[in-house]
Protein 1
Amino acid sequence: MIAAVILVCSLASLALFLVSYCRSLIAAAAGEKLPLEVQEVTGITSAASPEDFTRVVQLLQLCPDRPEERGQLRAIGTYYQILGFVCSTIARIAPSLQSWADRERSQCSYFAAVVLGRRIAFSRDLLAQQMLP
Amino acid sequence: MPGPLEFFIWCACFVLEVSVVVCAIRGKVFRRYLPLNLYMAASAIGDVLRFRILFHYGFTSKEYIYFYYYSDALLTIALYLALISLFVHVFRELGAEKYVLFGACFLLAGTALFSYLVIQQSTTKLVTHFVVELSQNLYFVGLVLTYVLWGAILKLRETRAQLVQLVLSLGIYFSLFAANYAIRNLYPPVSPVAIALLQVLGCFLPGAWAYAFLRLSSHARLTPSNLAVIPR
């Protein structure tokens, strides 16, 4: 009985902390300007659309990744999927929820584009180091 | 012996733990978050010692199992103290550090007493049972305290982005571990899978803390009320 109560409380708090944590990651990245090459490759200039996320993640997979960013991207990916689930289920009944979820998903796409910019810069540094005699 | 995947996760976790300390030193916040950094350094040292004992005595040896559980209990207490240091950060402006420290010691002693009362019927390996029980209970106490701390951050309008991310990632970590222990108690047949999953979950906290120290400036600010699930 106690284990069941602990399980329910843990899962509820996990959901709460995960959403808040993902939003804190997105908020921290929202202030960063996208580099020019990322704007050209992704077509995102100032605001991203909710559907951009999958495309940007595919581009991310082409770049060498960094362990400290892998977990964050996974957390945002999970958050994006939860929002997608909300859009296709509960949001059909409540239209205000639909616009909120779309706004959040757009910010997820922007976060992924910011990470793409960092990875491109990282790859460039790596290449420059290898070219040095 | 653990397989290549387990070794890879183990090594990745070790690298992330070391990178937390390195990023904190680079970001000049090592002393500000000293208990958190000491916890990560202790975890990394614990990993190295576990490796040594594993290679010397083997995975199923008594030495390895005892070292694993005893070091885990000590690290859980260290993490609990790291959490209390975050409380001190948030409550410093109110001048309530003394009360926070007193409350933390009282709660730790209470958890230890409760754990002892739960296992006192065990006739054999009393200390080992106590150590395992204390670890499990401290994860749940840690989760409740992190929830209280998050509430205090929202109420006191704490805006330090680094501190907010450290607290939220700690909340996720405690939730994952408390849920894992609860599932193991509810459905014992899934224990091997849950134990294997613990290793992967263990990488989350060092990864999140390394990211917070690496990417966020110590002066960065955000509005925590915008992060709450229910907007305030």
Protein 2
Amino acid sequence: MSEALQTYFTKVGKYPLLTREQEIDLAKKIEAGDSRAKNKMIQSNLRLAISIAKKYQRKGCSLEDLIQESNMGLIKAVDRFDWRKGFKFSTYAYWWIKQSVRTHVASQASDIKLPAHTRNLLWKMNEMVKEYDDQFGQKPSYDEVSEALGIPTSTLMSMIKCSSQTSLDANIRDRSGGAGRKIAEVVPDNNAASVEDLLDSVKIKGVMRSALRTLTSREENIIRLRFGIGDSSEQSKGQFILSQNEVKEIRRIAK
Amino acid sequence: MSMPKGYISENGYATVIKSGGMSYKDIAEEMTRRGFKMKHSAARNILLEAMKKLAVGVCELYDMDNTDIMRVASDPRFQECVASYLEEESII
């Protein structure tokens, strides 16, 4: 735990918890627009926000961020708390804080943003897999899961792909448990040329180079024109480099 | 040189217009303008001769028969490879 977080916890621990009567009293003042009362209500419930944030620690977000989001939910709850309903503030605030933290976790835990209903389906899928595993001692097939969830297998596969992405910079653990190479280092490049192709390419280039030396200037020019090699503008077409023989031939025709 | 009636090219034709190249007719006109009087058929024959020269080495490399030289030289895939190679290397 970071030093800043430790200091924050110590500071938060000093704010006393509120009794029900104090809560109602503060809520009335907040309604009247008393900002000091609002601050007191928030400060006195920061411990609740921390305790909820801690529950989501292992969801891929830092505790500092979770506490921040949790506090945002707490502020929202303070703004909307209606003391007339007769509930304790913590009961009301719990849902706002939880909602705020869960939204943050859902948006930050994955690099791929998934719609709420997809996240819901993924949660259902995980629950279903757990139940199946407990009951039958093995994991269900994709077809069984898709049938249970009422979605096509292709959709299920897409959802699983989206939810289980891994960073290319992540280390691969070797058998001894130590961090070895990175995933990016072992992912094969299917588009890369094979060694045989590269060797062939070198050989062919050598053959082509020597064969190109045997081309006459006329052949060379026709290839250039045919495939648009070099500048194809009208100006550059008038700037062909001609061989001495061609210059002689042009001179002969001109005479 | 016209193709025999009913001829279907096995691998299509090398795409030259898209890459800024000229048709044989245009090449013949351009070369004629420069003093090398020729028809479009001559332009095509000269190009094929050049391709044959380039194909010889490739056929030797892959132990192909001499009879394959013309087939390789006139293959649009080979011609496109030659063109892209020349463009990359800027040899000519």
